[in-house]
Structures are given as C-alpha cells and as structure tokens.
Design brief:
The chain has about 160 residues and is α+β, with helices and mostly antiparallel strands. It is built from five helices and five strands. The protein has a domain of about 80 residues: 2-Layer Sandwich (Translation Initiation Factor Eif1). Helices cover about 30% and strands about 15% of the residues. A hairpin with a 2-residue loop joins strand 3 and strand 4. Helix 4 crosses helix 5.
Amino acid sequence: MPKRLLILAAGRKSPPNRRRHPAAVEAAMGDAGKIPTSGGQALGQNPFAALNPTELSSAPAAPVRNLRSEIRNPARNRGRVDLKRTTAGRGGKTVTIVTGFTGIGLPEKESLAKKMRNACGCGGSVKDGDIEIQGDQRETVARILTEAGFRPVFAGG
C-alpha cells in the first residue's frame, strides 16, 4: 500500500483537501464553545440601566473650540510673496514660481503646493524653499495665497 493510504487506514490523519462533514465538526466541538444567538438572557445586563437622565446636563460646561478652523484661517497679512513666470532652463516649458516666503516652514509650503496643484490641475513641487507650479497659473496661485493670508505680487514675465 502507498504511504498515504496507510496513514488513512490507521485513522491518524484525514487528507488535507477533504472537508469534514458538518455533523462531525459539531460533534467534535460540542455545545460548550457556542454562544446562543436566540436573543435571550445570554447578552447580560443593559449597560445604560445605571444612567440617570436627570443628572445629565443638556449643554456642555465650556464652549468647544474648533482647532481645525483656526488652522485653516490663519492670521491675515503673513507677508509679501512674489509670483514669477519663467521658462529658464526648462526646455521652453512655462513654470509659475512663488518666492519670498518668510517665517513659514517646509511642511506648510508643501501643503500650500498641494492645494495649488489640486486647484490648477497640474504638477508642481517645492524646490529650494520656493513653490514651482507647472504652466502659467499665476491668477489661480494668487487666489490661493490670498486665502492663506499672504499678499501676492506679480513680478517678471
């Protein structure tokens, strides 16, 4: 006899690709490991039974501040930034460059660049502290910078 049939004949293992009959599985597990799903008392007590509705106040004690709106609406007059249109060193391709940021970190520049790319529907990046947007997008970029609190100034080209 082949080795596989010997193992099956001895009753030690079932073949790995053969499923067991559901009745055989139920007999092997027993009823001890099952949770009843009939919706009876097996679910325990009500977790809200101890709450007293008269003790609950209807208004919060202090007003809740929305930090996201404060971040999105920064203080106005964050400084002057220059918008330049250039084609130098790019094989004739036009690029809008935003320069002159003061007191602004790289993460905020990257988030502004992302807003500009999404609004313009084009590519762009942050290089050497300046934001570069592909194409002549000065009007759209100026609008976004104004909303962010900067004072855009058109320079060159």
